[in-house]
Design goal:
With 153 residues, this protein is mainly β. The chain has one domain: Deoxyuridine 5'-Triphosphate Nucleotidohydrolase, Chain A (Distorted Sandwich), CATH 2.70.40. Helix content is 5%, strand content 38%. The strands form four sheets. The chain has a four-stranded antiparallel beta sheet with strand order 3-6-10-8. It has a four-stranded antiparallel beta sheet with strand order 4-12-7-9, with no helix packed on it. The protein has a two-stranded antiparallel ribbon with strand order 1-2. It is globular, with a radius of gyration of 19 Å. The termini are far apart.
Length: 153
C-alpha cells in the first residue's frame, strides 16, 4: 500500500518473523532513513571480538532494491561498537535470516547485548544493475587518477 510522504511513495517489503516475539523493523522518528534492527539473542562481545547477531527476520525485497545494514551511531559513540562489513548488503534474492556482524572496538570493556536491543539500522534503497563495458581508455576528468587524500592537500 503506497502512501505519499516526504520520501515519496512507501515501499512494501515482505517480512517473515522467524522469532515472533520480536518487533518488525521500525523507524524511530518521521524522516528517518534507517529502520531499527534488534538482536534475537543475548550476547557479550569482549574487547576486540566480533559476533554474528541474528535479528529473527527474513525479508523479500522487490527486484531493483537492496537493504543496507548500517551501524547505530549511539552504539559507536557510547561503546565503540561497529559493524565489520558496514554496510552489510541484503540482496533482493536473499531469503535467509538477516544477521548483523558487530565488533567491539573498545580496548577495555565488553559490550553486553540483550535480546530485543537495537543493534543496527536497515536502509532500503533502489539500486541499479550496471552493464560493465570494457574500453581501452577511460574519458578524462578534472580529478583524473587522484585518490586517497588527493583533494586534501
Amino acid at each position: 500500500m503506497a502512501n505519499a510522504d516526504a520520501f515519496g511513495a512507501d515501499l512494501d517489503v515482505l517480512v517473515t518473523r522467524l522469532d515472533p516475539d520480536l518487533p518488525l523493523p521500525a523507524y524511530a522518528h518521521p524522516g528517518d532513513a534507517g529502520a531499527d534492527l534488534r538482536t534475537a539473542v543475548d550476547a557479550v562481545v569482549e574487547p576486540g571480538e566480533r559476533a554474528v547477531l541474528p535479528t529473527g527476520l527474513a525479508l523479500a525485497l522487490p527486484e531493483g532494491y537492496a537493504a543496507f545494514v548500517h551501524p547505530r551511531s549511539g552504539l559507536a559513540a557510547r561503546y565503540g561498537v561497529g559493524l565489520v562489513n558496514s554496510p552489510g548488503t541484503v540482496d533482493a534474492g536473499y531469503r535467509g535470516e538477516v544477521k548483523v556482524i558487530v565488533v567491539n572496538l573498545d580496548r577495555n570493556a565488553p559490550v553486553v547485548f540483550h535480546r530485543g536491543d537495537r543493534i543496527a539500522q536497515l536502509v532500503v534503497q533502489r539500486v541499479e544493475r550496471a552493464r560493465f563495458c570494457e574500453v581501452a581508455q577511460l574519458p578524462d576528468t578534472a580529478r583524473g587518477t587522484g585518490g586517497f587524500g588527493s583533494t586534501g592537500r
